[in-house]
Amino acid sequence: MISDQPHRLVETLEGRSKDLEIEFHRAYWDSQVEATPESERRRAELELELRRIKGDPDALAAVEGALQDDIHDPVLKRQLEVLRLSLLGNQMQEPQRELLVELSSAVESDFASFRPELDGRTVSDNEIDEILRSSNDPDLRRSAWEASKEVGALVADRVRELARVRNEMARDLGYADYYGMSLDLQEMSEEWLFDVMGRLERLTEEPFRAWKGALDGRLRERFSTQQLYPWHYADPFFQQTPPDGRVSLDDALQNLSASELCDKTFGSWGIDLGSVLDASDLYPRDRKCQHAFCLNVDRDGDVRILANVVPGERWVEVMLHESGHAAYDITIDPKLPYLLRRPAHIFVTEAIAILSGRLTRDPEWLTNVAGLASSEIGAIEADIRRTKAAHSLLFARWVLVMVHFEHDLYADPEADLDARWWELVERMQLVTAPPGRGSPDWAAKIHTAVAPVYYHNYLLGEMLASQLEATCARECGGLVGMKEAGTLLSERVFAPGNLMTWSVLIEKATGSSLSPDDFVSGLITNAS
User: For 34-149, where are the alpha helices, taking DSSP H only?
Assistant: First the structure.
């Protein structure tokens, strides 16, 4: 029997899922640090059990009924709102639930364990990235790029099936498709989102075309060709600023510890990452997930980072990014109820991660935190700022590919997705599709399967990161090494957790609603 008293209802529903959720997070961690059939099975079993508990229709009805009452306690009301969104997102028939968990778990396991072959030997993502960054051999580059897409063919059919099942679930709840449902559960309007994405596409088109035109000129000269293809760029999806289009800090950061830089960076803001770094798994090995993420295991201080750090700029940036997530998680007010001890929104925590990752291209951070010579950095400061702007510009265009592709995937999972992918890549990134390419390259991006309707949060995060940086500059005199900036972020963004909606939080934190103005202004000013 579910109580009709709001306080008791919240306590009951939280009690049902809290311990299981923590156990699932531990099993998820185990499955990513050591991808074995046993660890994957345990993770899948717990996920299915958790989804069943959160999919209780009686619980949803009780929460919706409680929300009809006049509740004066804002904390209690917010807990009920959060419960409603979680319960609604898990309403499905048992066969749908079992199939979703089975498919998503299998796909994620394949991404964790799959290693393509190149010239007769197994290679890692880091090795492929290194070839695309540094090799001048077009044939080797093409082989490496094609190897990076092999996992797409392995999982594509299951990704389509995931889209079908998710759509069935959404339509059973009265939504047109899973995409629209997901945005609703994220407390976000689809119309608002695509209005923002449209504005960003228009505002970034000319700066991007100019920047990429200059890059392509250098690449044509480097590779002695007039026709460039995806493997001529420096990563499998052309989402990172290539060495030909940026100042490389690999040599400068080569011998510095990424974890120590993170500890020093956040320590200057009054945030101690020691316990996080001690609990983390930071270096590559076989059967370990090759990506990076931060996991808040119990919302009570057990926060961990998984990474695959190798020397150089890229993994310093990744570690700062993931440490931004971790700093947010460990600074949420521990007195908040469990249900509210999480970020206000996915893109708000992404904003903090992006703000932190950007520091690798901040001259002040490079001298004051990384300890590089001020004369060395001063000589290339303008180039560093251009690199920072170019990175955000390039990433914005890449996110637009993902946002529109995912929208189309759920609008029609039976469409020619291979062709649609390349239409979007050519339109947004100005990258020419390989002649006759007929492979599911879209499925080689892990997010399409296991982090559905998520990618727009990165671009919203870029916007908010710029807005927060401007706020810190205005109110604290800057960001790097400024204790006041750490206090501002901790008190206005981190500590409130999910006590209020993202829109209210941003208004309170920055003094204005979310806007692309600061983000776009920085791109146009510095990218050329």
Answer: 37-54, 57-67, 74-88, 94-113, 125-134, 138-148
Instruction: List the structure tokens of 218.
Output: 């250098």
Whose structure tokens read 């028939």?
93
pLDDT tens-place string over residues 326-357: 999 999 999 999 999 999 999 999 999 999 99
Distance (Å, rounded) from C-alpha 115 to C-alpha 107? 14
Q: Which residues pair with 294 in a beta bridge?
A: 305
Closest CA to 320 of 309, 331, 334, 333: 309
Strand partners, 467: none
Q: 528: closest CA among 200, 213, 240?
A: 213
* Rounded Cα gap, residues 196 and 191, in angstroms: 9
Token pair, residue 255, equals: 């011998």
**What single DSSP character describes residue 426?**
I
Instruction: Specify the pLDDT at position 475.
Output: 98
**Mode of pairing for the β-strands spanning 117-118 and 293-296:** unpaired
Angle (deg, nearest 10), helices 190-223 and 178-185: 110
User: Of 35, 452, 392, whose CA–CA distance to 241 is shortest?
Assistant: 392
DSSP, residue by residue, 276-318 = HHHH-B-S--TTS-SS-EEEESSSSS-EEEE----SSHHHHHH
Measuring CA to CA, how many Å separate 189 from each of 40, 148, 184, 195, 474? Answer: 35, 35, 6, 10, 30
pLDDT digits (tens, 9 = 90+) for 144-163: 999 999 999 999 999 999 99
Query: For 444-489, what is the HEC assignment?
Result: HCCHHHHCCCCCHHHHHHHHHHHHHHHHHHHHHCCCCCCHHHHHHH
CA distances from 109 to 36, 52, 392 (A): 8, 22, 31
Q: How would you classify residue 307: left for phi > 0, otherwise alpha for psi between -120 and 50, otherwise beta?
A: beta
CA distances from 168 to 85, 103, 158, 172, 173 (A): 18, 15, 15, 6, 9
Q: Which residues of 413-448 are buried (b: 16+ CB within 10 A; e: fewer)?
A: beeebbebbbbbbeebbbbebbeeeebbbbbbbbeb
Strand pairing category for 121-122 and 117-118: antiparallel
281: buried, middle or exposed (CB in 10 Å: 19+, 13-18, 0-12)? Answer: middle
For the stretch 233-256, pLDDT in tens is 999 999 988 876 677 888 889 999
Give every CB contact of residue 420 below 8 A, 6+ residues apart in sequence.
405, 408, 442
Banded model confidence at residue 429, pLDDT cuts 50, 70, 90: very high
DSSP assignments along 333-391, one per residue:
-TTS-GGG-S-S-HHHHHHHHHHHHGGGG-HHHHHHTS---HHHHHHTHHHHHHHHHHH
